[in-house]
């Protein structure tokens, strides 16, 4: 390829992920039985992929072909659902890219897909159907009002078979990943920031990961890297979900403590018994959740796929959300300790009152027996 030659995609597609939190937990084996279509468990196929362990691999099944309205006209997309045991469900829409599409044309399509309301509506419709289908397999079903989106621009063949270095040098991948189709070029610093997390295993493949999208040039056609990006995206969703749940529970504790601190019944009984039980239940649920999310993918060794996954975790800022959940978990544990202390004091006071009452009754009956004789 020469510098004057445009980047032309001969074989490519766009993977649009919309991930929803639909339950506290999904029993994947029951879900497999509930789905009448063929299902498959995620299995990585790349060399050395055995060093990435998926203790309970997510379950996928096809949802068929659906029309998607775009500005250039409707297109037919292949829809897939993938279920995670920690309660997430991912809707994957595979948008075809016509052979001969240029980078500029692909950027226009990507820009539309990043914020497509039609795509959001289709994904929501599909996830509602998934929820009905797997209803017997879920615990505490719900549909969180927020979701996570991610887009992978996947190229198998580019005209001229450029190397990874040529693609980086000659293609404005930052504009593609941002969906920036304006005439004014991006600053060099912004372009470098968008494309800083990138990997190549051979001279002919390339992965560039941004926080909301990724470009994958993979002549082998292997889908391992998009699968890893999807797992990371699902983990991000779960940490965001529990971060909000913890915010709500901490706020509720504060409101109830303020409302009950001056109640006269405090003289006889702690008003925080129910709140203490609810807080303990939340802590137990949170510990189980963190274990399920942490166990959704385990890395053994430092090899290419592990580096790509860790790069995605960093770029998506998953560690920051995980740290926020951990801090609030510690705060909730401390709060539980204080509430339990209040309840324990109440119980000791009750026990003391019972002992005093028994002593008074014993004295009373002793005097009664004396006067009776």
Can you characterise this structure?
- With 373 residues, the chain is of the alpha+beta class.
- 49% of the residues lie in helices and 21% in strands.
- Strands 1, 3, 5, 6, 7, 8, 10, 11, 12 and 13 form a 10-stranded mixed sheet that branches.
- A hairpin with a 3-residue loop joins strand 12 and strand 13 (213-217).
- The termini are far apart.
- The chain crosses the membrane at residues 353-372.
Task: Briefly summarize what is shown.
This protein is of the alpha+beta class and 373 residues long.
Give the percentage of residues in beta strands.
Answer: 15-25%
User: How many E strands?
Assistant: 14
Work out the helicity level: 40-55%
> Mind describing the biggest β-sheet?
10 strands, mixed
Along the chain, the helix and strand elements come as: EEHEEEEEEHHEEHHHEEEHHEHH
Q: Please tell me how large the radius of gyration is.
A: 28 Å
Shape: elongated
Descriptors:
373 residues; alpha+beta; ten-stranded mixed beta sheet; two-stranded antiparallel ribbon; 10 helices; 14 strands; transmembrane; DUF155 domain-containing protein
């Amino acid at each position: 390829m020469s510098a004057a030659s445009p980047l032309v995609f001969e074989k490519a597609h766009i993977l649009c992920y919309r991930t929803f939190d639909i339950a506290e937990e999904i029993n994947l084996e029951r879900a497999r039985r509930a789905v009448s279509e063929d299902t498959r468990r995620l299995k990585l196929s790349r060399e050395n992929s055995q060093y990435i362990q998926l203790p309970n691999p997510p379950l996928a099944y096809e949802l068929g072909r659906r029309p998607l309205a775009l500005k250039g006209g409707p297109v037919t997309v292949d829809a897939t659902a993938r279920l995670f045991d920690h309660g997430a469900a991912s809707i994957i829409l595979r948008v075809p890219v016509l052979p001969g599409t240029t980078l500029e044309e692909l950027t226009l399509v990507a820009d539309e897909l990043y914020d497509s309301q039609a795509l959001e509506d289709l994904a929501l419709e599909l996830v509602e159907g998934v929820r009905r289908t797997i209803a017997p397999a879920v615990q505490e079903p719900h549909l969180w009002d927020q979701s996570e989106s991610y887009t992978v621009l996947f190229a198998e063949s580019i005209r001229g078979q450029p190397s990874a270095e040529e693609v980086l040098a000659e293609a404005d991948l930052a504009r593609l990943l941002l969906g920036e189709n304006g005439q004014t070029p991006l600053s060099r610093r912004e372009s470098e920031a968008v494309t800083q997390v990138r990997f190549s295993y051979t001279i002919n493949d390339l992965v560039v990961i941004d926080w909301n999208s990724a470009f994958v040039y993979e002549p082998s056609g292997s889908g391992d890297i998009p699968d890893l990006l999807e797992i990371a995206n699902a983990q991000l969703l779960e940490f965001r979900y529990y971060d909000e749940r913890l915010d709500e529970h901490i706020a509720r504790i504060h409101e109830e403590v303020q409302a009950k601190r001056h109640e006269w019944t405090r003289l006889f009984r702690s008003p925080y018994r129910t709140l203490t039980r609810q807080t303990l239940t939340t802590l137990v649920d949170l510990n189980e959740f963190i274990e399920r999310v942490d166990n959704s993918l385990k890395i053994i060794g430092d090899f290419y796929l592990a580096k790509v996954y860790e790069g995605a975790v960093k770029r998506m800022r998953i560690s920051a959300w995980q740290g926020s959940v951990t801090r609030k978990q510690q705060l909730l544990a401390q709060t539980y300790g204080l509430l339990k202390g209040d309840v324990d004091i109440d119980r000791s006071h009750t026990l003391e009152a019972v002992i005093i009452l028994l002593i008074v009754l014993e004295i009373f009956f002793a005097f009664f027996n004396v006067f009776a004789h």
